[in-house]
């Protein structure tokens, strides 16, 4: 069974979507073995504990490189095979990307390449989409490489912007209609692919 770590920083609704998928059997090729939060007060930690999942808090370190080294050590301790970024607000150092090449997924709340990269996270992404005046936005699940939001796109789903939308209403619709569907689906697909690869070895 592929062991998955989910990295979070906030409310954890995407983590909840993964936990629900695991409970319903939609996520079956991998098992969420660890939830790592960059913030000690993230509600995502409560969601993980309620589901009986092991948790760890790894606050911002003195440098991204040091953070990456600590994270790799933690992931190795739990024998993690695959990592899912679910509202994780720090950019991973290349050392982590290299250690888990092709095995890290991220969900981003826009249609990449719009409104993405360093500085675009959470509500800021939706505010930027509304300020620009686009009529359609959405969410993207992609492989994490060394370029922020620059890795191979695995899935995207478009969501229409409605008259009177605020960053908050738009965020909620993008989560419900796109993120919570795409992330569990792509997590299962990648876990299945990794499981197949490990079998061969
Ligand atoms: C989600 O919309 C996620 O896509 C976004 O933060 C939110 C976290 O919500 N992530 C990024 O912006 C990363 N660049 P959650 O904690 O409820 O899942």
Task: Tell me about this structure.
- By secondary structure, the protein is of the alpha/beta class.
- It is 42% helix and 22% strand.
- It has helices at 13-24, 43-50, 64-77, 94-99, 123-132, 167-200; strands at 2-8, 30-37, 54-57, 82-85, 104-108, 136-143, 153-160.
- Strands 3-2-1-4-5-6-7 form a seven-stranded mixed sheet, covered by helices on one side.
- Helix 1 crosses helix 6.
- The longest helix is centred in the last third of the chain and has 34 residues, at 167-200.
- The protein is globular, with a radius of gyration of 16 Å.
- It starts with a strand and ends with a helix.
- 41% of the residues are buried.
- The structure holds glycinamide ribonucleotide (GAR).
- The site of glycinamide ribonucleotide (GAR) has 17 residues, from helix 1, strand 5 and helix 6.
- Glycinamide ribonucleotide binds next to helix 1, strand 5 and helix 6.
